[in-house]
UniProtKB/TrEMBL annotation:
This is Unnamed protein product. It holds the Pfam family SH3_Tf2-1. Residues 32-95 form the Tf2-1-like SH3-like domain. Residues 112-212 form the Reverse transcriptase/retrotransposon-derived protein RNase H-like domain. It comes from Phytophthora fragariaefolia. PANTHER family: ENZYMATIC POLYPROTEIN-RELATED, REVERSE TRANSCRIPTASE_RETROTRANSPOSON-DERIVED PROTEIN RNASE H-LIKE DOMAIN-CONTAINING PROTEIN. The lineage of its organism: Eukaryota, Sar, Stramenopiles, Oomycota, Peronosporomycetes.
Length: 289
């Protein structure tokens, strides 16, 4: 890629080569000629894709987060997952209208029908495509939301659209490792932030400042604290590469990251709690911080 779009071509095309991907096609005709002349060498690279009307979702990774199969549907779980779509200011309202069903009432009979499954699948699909999921706009500032639970961490890279509404660019989450489950709450939240920076590095690294929203207010003063662990010192050295500011966002307002860090398939179950040394079993409905 660097050979094809070298110094001679870059000045004419406006193309910048970054990790073997084309960042812009400002002069499409010139770029097209270069691609056609070098089609054989470029198309052999697994990461190359040209002249596509849309990109496969695996490039931004939402399906393994929100389209996970095999969930056991319960009333508490559905209420928890429901907070994520509600965050999107009515964009998924046709699927979330409380008047559609009385199932949200605690005294209602629980019956997961084919209609319920259809609506649930439609909501998941809505979260993985426009307008909820957006392509990164390098001319707009990014912001990050992150959260940690007893058993997982979750984060999302976001931008405001032209109307000032939040749009997700990238979802990420993972289960905590055995040792990480024993971290204090402060370190778990800091780990979620570190994980987000590592995953979104290509978007965040640079001179432009960005904001990180976390549900743990103490992280705002973590860098200034005179009493920090050796692990925190190492992480602060990692954070020093980035130009960011930490802001507190309560869990009820941090719905996206909160939902990602509480995926039910990440929860620690009683059958394996003893094996990993966890004294208290976490469940998807656990609200502890």
């Amino acid at each position: 890629m660097d050979f094809v779009f070298g110094p001679d071509a870059a000045g004419n095309t406006g193309v910048v080569v970054f990790v073997d991907r084309l960042s812009k096609m400002a002069h499409l005709a010139v770029v097209g000629d270069l691609v056609l002349l070098n089609a054989k060498s470029l198309t052999t690279q697994a990461v190359s894709a040209f002249f596509k009307t849309k990109l496969p979702s695996r490039f931004i990774g939402p399906f393994k987060v929100v389209a996970k199969k095999g969930l056991v549907y319960t009333l508490n779980l559905l209420k928890k997952m429901r907070t994520h779509p509600v965050f999107y200011v009515g964009l998924l309202k046709p699927y979330l209208d409380p008047a559609r069903s009385s199932r949200w009432c605690s005294d209602a009979a629980w019956d997961w029908t084919a209609e319920c499954q259809q609506v649930f699948d439609a909501v998941k699909q809505g979260l993985t495509k426009a307008p909820n999921l957006a392509v990164a706009d390098q001319d707009r500032p990014f912001h990050v939301v992150c959260d940690a639970s007893d058993f997982a961490i979750g984060c999302a890279l976001m931008q405001h659209d032209h109307e000032g509404r939040d749009r997700v660019v990238y979802y990420q989450s993972r289960q905590l490792k055995t040792a990480e489950r024993n971290y204090p709450v402060h370190d778990k939240e800091l780990l979620a932030m570190k994980y987000a920076f590592a995953k979104f590095r290509v978007y965040l690294l640079g001179s432009r400042p960005f904001v990180v929203y976390t549900g743990h207010a103490a992280l705002r003063t973590a860098i200034k604290s005179p009493h920090i662990s050796q692990r925190t010192v190492r992480w602060l050295l990692f954070f020093a590469e980035y130009n960011f500011q930490v802001e507190y966002k309560p869990g009820r307002l941090n719905a996206v990251a909160d939902a990602l860090s509480r995926r039910p398939d990440y929860a620690v179950h009683k059958t394996d709690a003893n094996a990993i040394g966890v004294e208290r079993t976490s469940t998807p409905s656990d609200k502890s911080r």
